Amino acid sequence: MRSSFRALRRLAFVVPLLALGVQPIAAQSSAAKSKPAAAAPAKPAATGPWLYRGSDVPQDKEWVFGELPNGVRYAVRKNGVPPGQVAIRVRMDVGSLHEEESERGFAHLLEHLVFRQSRYLAEGAAIPTWQRLGATFGSDTNAETSPVSTTFKLDLPNATPAKLDESLKLLSGMMIAPALTEANIRTEVPIVLAEKRERGGLAERVADATTQTLFAGQRMAMRPVIGTTETLQAANHASVRAFHSRWYRPDNAVIIVVGDIETAQIEAMVRQHFADWPAIGKRTPAPTFGDPIAPKGSNPANPIGQTRVVVEPDLPRGLTYAVMRPWRPVQDTIAYNQGIMLDSLAQAIINRRLEARARAGGSFLFAQVNQEKVSQSADATFVSVTPLDENWTRSLKEVRGVIADALATPPSDDEIEREVAEFNVAFESSVEQRRLLAGAKLADDMVTALDIRETIASPETVLEIFNSSRNLFTPQAVLEHTRRLFKGVVTRAVYVTPKADEAQAASLAAALAAPAVADPKARPGGKPISFAEMPAIGAPGKLVSSGSAGILGIEQLEFANGVKVLLWPTTDEPGRVSVKVRFGAGFRAFSAGDAAYIALGDMALVGSGQGQLGQEELDRISTGRKMGYDFAIQDASFQFSADTRSSDMADQLFLFAQKFAQPRWDSGPVLRAKAAARLRYESFSASPQGVLERDLEFLLRGRDPRFRTPTPQEVEAATPEGFRQVWQPILEQGPIEVQLFGDFTRDQAVAALERSFGALAPRPAYAAPLQPARVPTLPPSGVPVTLDHRGDPTQAAALISWPTGGGMASITESRQLVILSDLFQNRLMDAMREKLGAAYAPQVQNSWPQDLENGGSLTAMAQLSPKAVPEFFKAAEQIAADLVAQPPSADELERVIEPLRQQISRASTSSSFFMYQLEGATSEPAKFAGLRTLLSDYTRATPEQMQALARKYLQPGRSWRAQIMPQGAAVASAAARPSKPLAPAPAEGR
């Protein structure tokens, strides 16, 4: 039963290694599948829609299913979110696990070739064709290959029946008759190898080592989706055609179409274009993917299998062990899903305990339990641990102790009720907001259901099953499911460490084989907390002015204390309320020596608490409520934001307002953020992408020290008291703007604002002068800034950037620059990817800070091989020169403008779009005027206007360049000279 339940399990706890840039394993999203403690017997359907055969899960009647005589299956649905769009997915039942040894990478290569040329599309015509229909390459038009499937994706905006019919016709030609010529293969293989290079190096080594260890003896261990250089280079028209003939059959295809067209029309088009797909010969059965198997002679009670230690000097420590079980197809029944719910409860309870242990000063930064069914290869329970230091055995012991306690003793009723309340609010919100489900999301959910061999359930069905199952959620039932999660045929593990000789495979195996001692200290204590118990922020504030903003139904309010509000009650998005609180001066409020505290604030300001609420209490008070607490540092402001609902809106506003009225400065979150920053730092140097993440903003801001990533030494020198000295004045000074958009009444919102933000004391002006961001100083023409990385010697990156401007006065010009950057992007993609095969995904980015008078840029960048860096600079400079010399063609311009028009049209169906556009409008009224001209600014442009913009900004003498090269490599340009490492700016500490 594919529903919001799968995603729910991941709401409260983020996979820790992902936060540090290390992914322990690429796994299909699924959940534990066990029989519940008690359930009514299922009555599986023997007939009916193909997706529901063998299931008693009530059919989601909004889906219409069908099968064609040749075996093609389809699922179609009418959906008007966003209006006019149709989402198409063509899922082929073939992935990397279906490849033979000599075909490794062929499933993914074929995905590329299908786009290159086919029955109805000339060579290279697919992307331009859909751009003319308004679809953006990469977001609206894409494809993806997994170990078990290949899915072609098209989100078609402004989709008339004629456009949909044409698109399905083109897609049918791509599936049935791609042009698998030798020339096309020789063109596409370098592009795939460029993709492999960009995703390779350290990340590929760790992923391969992890997969090979955890799935030892199975096909999964030796079938990475990207393939191998040897098999890809050996591909030819005969071998690729044979692979296509074997797997691209109608009985392996599912066509999914969801959108703003009647289902009967969609069904007719699917039949018209896919019914003549011939099924030649017998269908080839999928190969056996294999099962995890314990080594001979292992301890039956605790079978420890393969273990591996991976030494990567530039990565933080990370340990993953997995309790492996064979994967088997299941009957997706109600009873089966009740088992999923119990398994998810068990995991949520353990994960909350692990988080509590880490917060209380544990020896690990993060730890998490996560059960997955992985690519039809294994049903596994993964345990991920990020040790704080080289004493990994202590960290593993602590984590296993928390798990051992969960295996020994049932959870309390309070623990179960806490997690049940979290599940319940998510399910209720899904029902409330079902009208907002986008067609693309529904189509992707169907693809996932097919991947994991499950059904689809409506939000109402999920909530009904959940509510009817609550009597099953007993301590004893959760205990039994916890024990099942940690029983398997074999346990395997991988430890990634920066230091050699810190661990060996044998010591890792011994640590896992040692008995775990139950540790109950992480069991949560304390009672539930209610907002009713919270002391008032102050006397309710007085509303001193209100009036229409002059656009949509938005109202502008002001309270006596100076807090300004943009208020938009709307029923267009039922069940959703969006809150943004914009305050202070953003980066302008910091001093040159504050880099460490800026980074720590981004991670720890919210967690440091407020009033009576520390981090644990913040979690408790929001249990069972739809509330959030996101924080962001922007150019000219700071921002709290959350998605909530009408019944929780008042308390969400109180929570944000209390942060200003009664800030708390707990040291624990700051110390934990310090540990995370230190652990992550060295990984930046492990790849060109990491160096760009570390240094690009610093370079684009003219080496402004506030935008520099702090070193471990600087982070180590930071203290909780220094953290308070930097952040307390920020919470106390400057204006506050609240944006409140969504499903509520005006009276309800004003009353909640009076008791929260209206009750704050008046805020003083800034005590110190604000410091604007620097503008880059242009180096001599032709001399790139050269930075080193310590990763794979085949990887490099390059960028060229032209400074532009900022502010609202030239907002129309900033939007026209988006059009120019998209023109540049199309040409760069053609030059570097399609013609040279030198880069997989070159990008051109346009930035224009609306709240600053300068600091914008138009920047082209690409990841490449070191020898291709000069080619990138040559291509980028030639593109810029051509745009300066002559206007683009009308067709080229339309291929950019039409997707932009459709993006804006789709985005503007959501109130969050307008909320983003109007951030800061209470102090900058020009943003209201700017919203009125937004569509025309992005969609009314002439070739001559583009040339004029290029002449203004893209002149050679206005650009600067950077290249990120392997350590010790020769620089890529004859005119280039290596730069010194980016030195820290002189500290101006507090």
Automatic annotation (TrEMBL):
InterPro entries: Metalloenz_LuxS/M16, Pept_M16_N, Peptidase_M16, Peptidase_M16_C. One of its GO terms (molecular function) is metallopeptidase activity. Residues 236-421, 737-898 form the Peptidase M16 C-terminal domain. It comes from the Bacteria. Residues 85-198 form the Peptidase M16 N-terminal domain. It holds the Pfam family Peptidase_M16. Residues 970-990 are annotated as: Disordered. Residues 1-26 form the signal peptide. One of its GO terms (biological process) is proteolysis. Keywords: Hydrolase, Metalloprotease, Protease, Signal, Zinc. Belongs to the peptidase M16 family. This is Insulinase family protein. It comes from Novosphingobium ginsenosidimutans. The lineage of its organism: Bacteria, Pseudomonadati, Pseudomonadota, Alphaproteobacteria, Sphingomonadales.
